[in-house]
Amino acid sequence: MGKNNNRTVARNGKVMNSEVNALPPQKSVFLAYVLWLFGGIFGLHHLYLHRDRHAFLWWCSLGGYFGIGWLGEIFTIPSYVRDANEDPRFIEEFIKKLQTHKKPPYSGKRFLFMIMIGYLFGQLANMAIPNDMYMAMDFNFLHWLIPFFVALGVWTVGNIGRERGVLWHCLLAAFAAYPIRYFIYDETYTILITSLAAALVFDHASKEWLRTPPKRRGICERFFKFSTAMFIYFSLWGCFFYFNGTITDENGNEVPIHEAFQNFLASAWWTDIKQALKDMYTYAQHHGWYEIWKELLESMDVDGERNAYKVLGLSATASQTEITATYRKLCKTIHPDTVKDESQRATAQQRFIEVQQAYEILSKIKSARIRKNKKVVNDDNENDTIVL
């Protein structure tokens, strides 16, 4: 009593009772649309709806190949929300699909997306393989990992939502199609054909209905899996830039990034940076990190005080009286109305504005310090009175 039965759909399309479990937390259509609008190309709305695979693919392809898939979801988000909430209306519609179709019907949109993501993953793996020998090693044998990434991309798309399938069907098709590279001699067409073969096999031989509601995993498990996938994705991009990326020098010559990086680590500039960081750490050990932070803020001149003194031509020890006198003198000598030459008037106007701004900054800082000092003195007097 008082407990909700988690419902699973049997193979004959009927609803049967399974393990006792509470309904998932209910999701909001409004919030899903807000996340779709402001972070949809990164899959935020899919993360919110526990569609992590969908979110990862949206993140990798910037909303389904630069926003195309993102725009196409404007009418499907309510259905996604009903699925996440295990809404009775969604369950009823899903049961009708099960009764009508023994396996998920062909979807041109999903099939095309399987090919595109399979091609994307395969091409990324291909770009990550070093084109030249590195550390006296030839990495061309790694090209046989490309079918794996193609199959992984196809399988990931095929397992979105209420459909699923096994990975090994995609792997067999991808590895069977990949040797065509020895006849075509173009890796781009090879990867495309491999992706097409994997998608065809998955669509006809592997895909089936996901008859049980998707398992609700904890935030830690979801974060670990998602961050692991992102780490692998970024690692492939990192390998591409490091091994195959180039930088053009001042002479127009292309230098491989890994060579440029090694040269940078051996440069005098990097040596000076390392020494500066070491000196900063040593100084912080004796004086504390707060002093480092104070010196950093002073060097950045965040309040503009140092530049204001420079504009007025004064030292940092100048009093408010000296600042005011210098400001008035400069206003008389550099006022734009005193400039006869029209070509120099704009420069004089800019200089006059800089002087005014410098005076305002210093006056504001001086006034704030005076108020602060008065407050400290008054507090000290009050404390002395209490002690007496």
From TrEMBL:
Record domain J: where = 307-378
* Subcellular location, record wording: Membrane
Keyword Membrane listed? yes
Q: How does it sit in the membrane?
A: Multi-pass membrane protein
Q: Which CDD domains match?
A: DnaJ
Q: Which PANTHER family match?
A: DNAJ HOMOLOG SUBFAMILY C MEMBER 22
Q: Which protein, by its recorded name, is this?
A: DnaJ homolog subfamily C member 22
Organism, by scientific name, is Glossina fuscipes
